[in-house]
Amino acid sequence: MAGRFHYGGQALIEGVMMRGRTTLAMALRLPNGQIETKDKPIPSLYTGRFRKVPLIRGVLILLETLIIGTQALLYSAEKAATGEDGEELPKGALILAVAGSLTFSVALFFVAPLVISRSLDAYIASDLTSNILEGGIRILLFISYVALIGLMPDVRRVFAYHGAEHRVINAYEADIPLTPEAVRNYSTSHARCGTSFIFVVLVVSILVLALLGRPPILIGILSRLLLLPLIAAASYEIIKWSADRQNNLLVRLFTLPGLTLQKLVTRQPDEGQVEAAIAALQLVLDEQPEPRIETT
Length: 296
Known about the structure:
The chain has helices at about 55-80, 90-120, 125-150, 155-175, 180-185, 195-210, 215-245, 250-260, 270-285; strands at about 10, 15-20, 25-30, 35-40. By secondary structure, it is an alpha+beta fold. The protein has one domain (about 10-285).
């Protein structure tokens, strides 16, 4: 499967978004029970030649996920509430929403672990031990956050659509007809999931930040902000490399923690949720059909 285009998506509120080569499609379950689909071109920033350049593409994909993903999520919330299209979010408001989300994530998963670990400096002689402790706190905070929000009924439904998205992508990559019955037994986990990506980011950050030792806390915070894009870019390359080599036992063992973590952010979908995921993927496939992936 190496070298083929990797279709992927994102769970929305009562729906799924799928990303194709140059278009993205949303399939949303409206309050009246009907599925509405909508597709739009992806801005050229995310589809141009830089998309193929290692490391740079990781940063572009991160930006795409933050900006386009947030826009799609807000649109789906409006549709789920009213069944009608709302006014498109002004660019300034979208930037503010993305900035707020990014600030919260960095503060919780990067700044807070640093502050907590540094508060114990008097009891830790080794710089390496301090960095490992910081990384462990970072991973624990992430797992705890995901587990807690997963208790909310509305979030659990989003997680079920996430499971539907994975199930349909897994079936497509196995060259299975895209029907709810045919995809029923496919996994709700996937090697390219964003959750696995975040887990790799957390692990890679331990290795990278350990090289800095224990600088003063303000420099430590600044270094984490500046290095985060590079860490994310390197992590994307790792995810992409490992996703293409799932037939290798060692690679499967390497990706097992991320796949296990996905159990917190996916739920078993019902047939209606799978139908929405199929509708979204089918729309991008119809826009740009290509030969199905051959199985061996």
